[in-house]
Automatic annotation (TrEMBL):
It comes from Saccharopolyspora phatthalungensis. This is Non-specific serine/threonine protein kinase. Gene3D superfamilies: P-loop containing nucleotide triphosphate hydrolases (3.40.50.300), Tetratricopeptide repeat domain (1.25.40.10), Winged helix-like DNA-binding domain superfamily/Winged helix DNA-binding domain (1.10.10.10). PROSITE patterns: HTH_LUXR_2 (PS50043). One of its GO terms (biological process) is regulation of DNA-templated transcription. Its EC number is 2.7.11.1. Pfam families: GerE (PF00196), HTH_77 (PF25872).
Length: 773
């Protein structure tokens, strides 16, 4: 079984915001476990470090998997039915035709050699279990590293319980300089010096820190929260507060002291250390999925004791206390809560009288944002809006879930999903868009204008997937609703999908008549979304009937309207259509220029459908110019997009495809054609635009530079000694270190750089030295 390669996107791997401390044994054993088991499930209590360890192991192993590693984050996912879509999104697949199930995902992965990290499975356990079992059954080269608070319970699963960090034994007399040999103490010191640079572990502070780590059972999250409080408390104060808290928690049952209670106690204490404003923000911000920006926090979280003017101060305070983690996406600063911290905040919010109000504000925030997207989509900010909606995708899902949970909000959900039609298309998320349509339409069947608009959107999505039977049923309902409601605009908007349905049945005269019956009113009402789609559709139908003059006229109108709005996505469609007509007229240079311009616009969108169309036409142009080797390569690239899209691209124009391909095969012969076709087929999808435009990229082009974890000054010094061929013992003697310390430094270098041998360190350090010279 073969499938299109999953594009490597190393720059999307989560960046460490703090140093990785300890876990050398676990790293080594997990790598060994993954070498012998295809499914390893890293289990443990919240806060024990499952996600951090899984990400580190996967990053270290990335070079061992030909098709890379991928992270599927499930913490913000509430709908179990979207687990397959979450996997598809993580894989970077932009198939616009498939309704995703475990089987269809497995079919797309095929025999690729890939490591899939699936994080936070416990709240969607059943769907995860089915998903993983299917992938492992059907994808022989796939390995899965999952994190969960419990086992998936499927065949072949190796459950790997993650213990807390090692702590010094009670009453053990250990010199302060040796306490950092215990990972829990080492973590505390690392985080403590980050907030109080002058902090030092000496004979006075050492025993106190050791007792703190014991009290916290070595749970990393608890230790980090305690260490960050050194901004305002001394170690003795921290220990005393822990003693008081734990004495309260264990009263009446001193024989029972579970780890999760320890963590809960520590987070309780951190919560109590916050100001009233910070506590309010912590609880209210837990409604966000994954992350949020300051504007979102001000809109959703302000109220009562937390005024809008004080939100920034509260955000700053929570960042300082390591409750909020600061990140950046596309130049915009965002914030997120670790999942355990988020769950604590949700508990606090659910106990308050504010929960309905805050969830309603979150819903309204993303309903408003989606409405802004719909208004801004056909304008000069189209690309930034597309990027913005990708960043807010998880929060939009959460808002939709809230709408479905509250029956009075169904109309809001309808408007959200309808407004996102073009986002579902350009983002390769048609399957998810259809699922939301299905869920919402099943929930409320009452006749309404929002339902009619959603029915029209659902019919569009069904047609784009070639599901004519579902589309026919939706279109019939749309006609019925427009009559019942007396909604003439809705009846007008139905013309777009009705025309597409006729075109898909190759009844082009009927499609043209349907499209043209709506054009004047669409122009008058300035219904841009439908108007631009209809202009392209009617132009394509005229082209297929051989009427280039009419086709070009409609494409020119589409181009002019798009340019006047500053819009880029539909403009690329118009340029493609004009390029086809120029090729048919024998204007080969002009045709190539138009297609190149269309491709340049598509760099911003990842719209694989249109890119594939453009590459296909460039193959026709190359054939017409006698550049048969290049034509064969471009057919190879186009074929990759055909497979990636899930259904044949350019099915309407298959006559042109077959004619040009036969001509190239005859000119080159089957052997040469196969050779050059294979060269094109091996070009990665993310390089295809550049390749088609003649830029120096191809199958052998390396992926984007991979992140190198920065080495410390001492580790760089040791790497240079490795270049000289020194053993660990010789390094230790040269630098006046213990041999054990030298060995630990070398192991850290291997882990940080993702290497497996000293020879790789030597090669890397040599290259680094030559760059510096």
């Amino acid at each position: 079984m073969t499938a299109p390669s999953v594009p490597r996107l190393p720059n999307q791997w989560p960046t460490d915001v703090t140093s990785f401390v300890g876990r050398r044994r676990e790293l080594r054993e997990l790598r060994r476990a993954l070498s012998s088991s295809r499914l390893v499930n890293l289990t443990g209590v919240g806060g024990v470090g499952k996600t951090r360890l899984a990400l580190r192991v996967a990053w270290d192993l990335r070079r061992a998997f030909q098709d890379g590693v991928r992270l599927v984050e499930l913490a913000g996912l509430e709908d179990e039915g979207l687990v397959p879509q979450a996997v598809v999104t993580a894989l970077g697949i932009y198939d616009q035709s498939t309704r995703w199930t475990p089987e269809t995902v497995a079919d797309r992965l095929g025999d690729q050699q890939l490591l899939l990290v699936i994080d936070n499975c416990e709240h969607v356990l059943q769907s995860c279990a089915v998903m993983v079992a299917t992938l492992l059954r059907d994808c022989p080269n796939l390995r899965v590293l999952a994190t969960s608070r419990q086992a998936l319970g499927i065949a072949g699963e190796r459950v790997w319980p993650l213990a807390a960090l090692a702590v010094p034994e009670a009453d053990a007399e250990i010199p302060a300089q040796r306490l950092t040999e215990f990972e829990a103490v080492s973590l505390f010191v690392d985080r403590a010096t980050a907030v109080v640079p002058e902090f030092d572990l000496d004979e006075r502070t050492g025993p106190v820190v050791a007792r703190i780590c014991r009290r916290l059972d070595g749970i990393p999250l608890a230790i980090e929260l305690a260490a960050v409080s050194l901004r305002i408390l001394a170690p003795d104060d921290i220990l005393r507060r822990l003693d008081d808290r734990f004495g309260f928690l264990t009263s009446g049952n001193r024989a029972s002291f579970p780890r999760h209670q320890t963590l809960r106690a520590l987070i309780d204490w951190s919560f109590d250390l916050c100001s009233d404003e910070e506590r309010a923000l912590w609880a209210r911000s837990s409604v966000f999925a994954e992350d949020f920006d300051l504007e979102g926090a001000e809109i959703v979280c302000a109220g009562g004791e937390l005024t809008t003017a004080h939100v920034l101060d509260a955000v700053t305070g929570l960042v300082d206390k390591s409750i909020l983690i600061r990140t950046e996406h596309g130049g915009r600063v965002r914030y997120r809560l670790l999942e355990t911290i988020r769950q604590y905040g949700l508990d606090a919010l659910n106990r308050s009288a504010q929960v309905a109000l805050v969830r309603g504000r979150h819903r309204d925030r993303y309903s408003d944002l989606v409405e802004q997207f719909a208004h801004g989509w056909f304008g000069p900010d189209q690309v930034s809006w597309f990027s913005r909606m990708k960043t807010e995708h998880a929060n939009t899902r959460t808002a939709l879930e809230h709408c479905l949970a509250e029956s009075g909000d169904i109309s809001v959900a309808m408007r959200i999903v309808d407004s996102l039609l073009d986002y579902w298309r350009t983002g390769g998320l048609i399957s998810e868009g259809r699922r939301w349509c299905d869920r919402i339409l099943e929930r409320d069947s009452a006749a309404s204008a929002p339902r009619l608009r959603l029915v029209i959107t659902a019919s569009h999505l069904a047609l784009l997937q070639g599901d004519l039977s579902a589309a026919d049923a939706l279109l019939e309902e749309g006609r019925r609703l427009s009559r019942v409601l007396g909604d003439e605009t809705g009846r007008l908007l139905l013309k777009g999908p009705e025309g597409l349905a006729a075109a898909l049945r190759r009844d082009f005269p009927r499609a043209i008549a349907t499209y043209e019956s709506a054009l004047d009113q669409l122009r008058e009402k300035e219904e841009l979304r439908s108007l631009l789609a209809v202009l392209f559709g009617v132009g394509m139908c005229y082209s297929l009937l051989g009427d280039s003059t009419s086709a070009a006229a409609y494409y020119e109108e589409l181009l002019g309207r798009s340019q006047s709005q500053g819009e880029k996505w539909r403009r690329s469609y118009a340029l493609w259509g004009l390029g086809v007509e120029a090729w048919r007229a024998g204007e080969l240079q002009h045709a190539a220029e138009l297609i190149h311009e269309s491709l340049e616009l598509q760099r911003k969108f990842n719209d694989h459908h249109t890119v594939g169309q453009c590459v296909e036409v460039l193959a026709w142009i190359a054939m017409s110019q006698g550049e048969n080797e290049q034509a064969a390569r471009l057919f190879g690239v186009s074929n990759t997009f055909l497979r990636e899209g899930g259904t044949p691209l350019l099915a309407f124009f298959d006559e042109y495809h077959h004619h040009c391909e036969r001509a190239v095969r005859r000119a080159l012969g089957e052997q040469k054609y196969g050779k050059f076709f294979a060269q094109g087929a091996s070009v990665r999808l993310q390089n295809a635009v550049g390749y088609a435009l003649g830029e120096p990229v191809g199958a052998s082009t390396p992926v984007a530079p991979e992140r190198e974890t920065e080495l410390s000054r001492r580790e760089l010094e040791i790497a240079d000694l490795v270049v000289q061929g020194m053993s660990n013992k010789q390094i230790a003697n040269t630098l006046v270190l213990s041999q054990r310390t030298a060995e630990a430094h070398v192991q850290n270098i291997l882990l940080k750089l993702g290497f497996t041998s000293r020879a790789q360190i030597a090669a890397w350090a040599t290259e680094r030295q030559s760059r510096s010279h």
